[in-house]
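Structure ticket #2291
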Amino acid sequence: MAAFAFDAVLWRIPEEAGWHFITLPVELAADLREETAQLRKGFGSIKVTATVASTSWSTSVFPDSKSGSYLLPVKKAVRTATGIHSGDTVSVHLEVDAGI
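Resolution: structure written out below.
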């Protein structure tokens, strides 16, 4: 299935338990939408395996109407293992989970 690689900034929702996300580049989001038309779940989420540095995890990317792209949630365990922080530019590899 489809795989994508990109660099983007890790950002945090400004609240006490603020979630951390990476917004996929808009051009990549268009390709992802096209490649996954039959795989999207619920409100448009797409199951993926994400890799940052040597750390991989299963998650979903979620559509974001504000940016016109998708958001990749980055959990604390991943941020700790890779040493990344809000504001860092991160290299990401995404593989779409075809559900096979």
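Closing remark: The longest strand covers residues 3-12.
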